[in-house]
Amino acid sequence: MSRDWDEVLREHGFRITPQRQLVLEAVNSLGHATPETLLAEVQKTAGAVNLSTIYRTLEVLEQVGLVTHAHIGHGAPTYHSVDEDPHIHLVCDTCSKVNSIPAESADVFVQLLRDQVGFETDVAHVSVHGQCAECLERMKLL
Amino acid sequence: MSRDWDEVLREHGFRITPQRQLVLEAVNSLGHATPETLLAEVQKTAGAVNLSTIYRTLEVLEQVGLVTHAHIGHGAPTYHSVDEDPHIHLVCDTCSKVNSIPAESADVFVQLLRDQVGFETDVAHVSVHGQCAECLERMKLL
DNA sequence: CTGACTGCAAAAGGTTTGCAAAAAG
DNA sequence: CTTTTTGCAAACCTTTTGCAGTCAG
Fold this sequence. Notes:
The structure is a homodimer. Chain A is α+β, with helices and mostly antiparallel strands.
């Protein structure tokens, strides 16, 4: 669960604050969370925390490598713990549901990009758009 | 170049308007364009066209399959002609440059998603984030 | 003519910023 | 004590919406 997150921050010259701890904990416990969602979670404990603090904190946490974010669909980005198993988001453009699959599923593709154009893929950041199985099924019935 | 775009619109019960023609032409000529960019292009010819019209028009054009859009990075989506060869965007998270590779490069991966989870990928909509060859090179030097 | 489409202005959603007060080291 | 960090309010940017007038069919 908790790592030496405070060490990591300190090493990068950042200070340790309750807000940063709370945001990090919220990211870890929620799994997939937007800034707005994180605010709600954090405010359960500390009601006075502001949205702009969430944004600034996420920026810092990402900078030191304690969290990552991915863009899913049009709206807000979602933040992930770095401790999580890396995964790929499958976004259904019909029902907007998001499924995750293990990052290894893309290994072949990632390797191909590396060999072919020297591109190093950040797998966890990838969003794959398309139609999920349920929506395809539903379409067939019509 | 131009197709029977007016036919397509009509078939779907939409009307033919100069705005729609201009937006479609702009998408086709610009290749990768954001709504804002498209507005600028369209306004070269018709200065009175409004941004909201661009948005509404793109929605219609996408609905009837004359254009597609993809999400690249944080900001605005970019719209593409459907006549273009389908391609995948490789977005460099360091320099923000976008390279395109032919959609076929992902065939194996797409097939895997189909077999494994029944997900039908919209290849042209996929954005792959990571580090481009140049940025990786630059990082090694430091 | 009649309903679809457009322009305009205002609202909405998400993110950023300036500043003074509060807290970390 | 010094510097970073925070809360607040306002600004910003992109996209959406309501409405009345306009235009395509």
